[in-house]
Design goal:
458 residues, alpha/beta, seven-stranded mixed sheet, six-stranded antiparallel sheet, binds flavin-adenine dinucleotide
Length: 458
Amino acid sequence: MAKHDAIIIGTGQAGPALARRLVAADWNIAIIERKLFGGTCVNTGCTPTKTLVASAYAAHIARRARDYGVKIEGPINIDMKAVKARKDAVVAPSRNGVERSLKTLKGCTVYESHARFVAEKSITVNDAELTADRIFLNVGARAAIPPIPGLNQVSYLTNSSMMDVDFLPPHLVILGGSYIGLEFGQMYRRFGSKVTIIELGPRLIAREDEDISQAIADFLREEGVDLRLDCKVIGVEKQDNSIVVKIECGGKASQVIGTHLLVAVGRRPNTDDLDLDKAGITTDAHGYIQVDDQLRTSASGIWALGDCNGRGAFTHTSWNDFEIVAANLLDNAQRRVSDRISAYALFTDPPLGRAGMTEAQVRNSGKPALIATMAMEDVSRASEKGETKGFMKILVDRDSKQILGAALLGLSGDEVIHCILDVMYAKAPCTVLQRAMHIHPTVSEFIPTMLEDLRPLQ
Ligand SMILES: Cc1cc2nc3c(=O)[nH]c(=O)nc-3n(C[C@H](O)[C@H](O)[C@H](O)COP(=O)(O)OP(=O)(O)OC[C@H]3O[C@@H](n4cnc5c(N)ncnc54)[C@H](O)[C@@H]3O)c2cc1C
């Protein structure tokens, strides 16, 4: 049995960074990856999708060229093979970089196979048995496949298999109107597919405020995405070269016939094939590994980082998990997950940047609060760029004047949100931001202006 100071399972966002920190502290470690180095973000998540979103944006702007006084003669054609090749060219260096950096890291042994527990501190991988006093799980998540009758009899796509698509699906039907479904939906519509998104709930991305869901639905519909809300999928079947999705919308049965089907109804953690029980590691009802505020599992000396712990589902939360664990272990720090502020983006065009509480959460909390809103039509930079869809809102605690949350749906909302997020981390009153001099002409210059106009949240 090979003994290491630590074993890391999974090379997602937390594992490789942790490997580097531990080795720098003279630990002898093993890291195990069963598939693609770099995990979801690099191979089938953030990097490839945002690269594809960029191609779709180029197509969209090309079609709108006349709005800018630019004449393009002839139709706009999308070369899907070139789109995929561009995506692959962006992804490959990241994946190879992670692999190379781990394989050349002194003090780090890389195993390429599926790992599972055989006992509390023992793991099998290939024919080897490894043991360590400290084990870190960074096993991530995968697309959840709902038990829809007939689904297993048709060939459906997930975010992973979408990465191999190098052709234009004539009619892409997407199950799920949340973050992943919406990004793919707008992207493929812009590439030229007919797109239908089927969502069980009465509105898109139910986690967001209603006005945000509505505005996103409006701009997607304007681009020609067919949204079927409040619709339950009751069955799927193949018919010649088509896929028939049977739905029930408001009690009425109907169907959508598409050529390709993307399942994007959520994620499930990769914890069902680790034999966690052999190590005494407990999970919740959805399979997420239960951790405390410092990411320690129920088994001593074992931590869970990233999507598998259910404490975040983003690259930055996984990376932050790495920072917390490394700082607590190596720097004698006392960092906690609860110290972080919820922040993320939806990378539609325009994007949504989010920090802290939603308006609905503020209302439910009963806190006396103030709100400021601004339509992107009133933002000069947005007019100059001809991208005026969306609006911004900021919520502030009436008494402390600290910012409670913000939603910026509009041009550069994914970037501008950080000026709000940093003031929230500083726990500074919003007057600090209100008096800051921002650069003209930017979207950010309107954040101080908005804060001049706070009114009670009724
Ligand atoms: C389509 C899509 C778009 C996304 N876009 C964004 C975005 O824009 N921004 C953002 O912040 N987040 C985004 N995310 C989420 C983000 O990709 C993940 O939150 C992020 O990758 C964190 O993953 P992780 O570190 O938990 O593990 P992962 O990156 O999932 O890596 C886990 C690794 O563990 C390996 N593994 C699993 N089990 C075993 C085992 N038993 N033995 C050996 N190896 C194992 C897997 O092969 C995998 O490589 C997106 C996700 C998807 C699906």
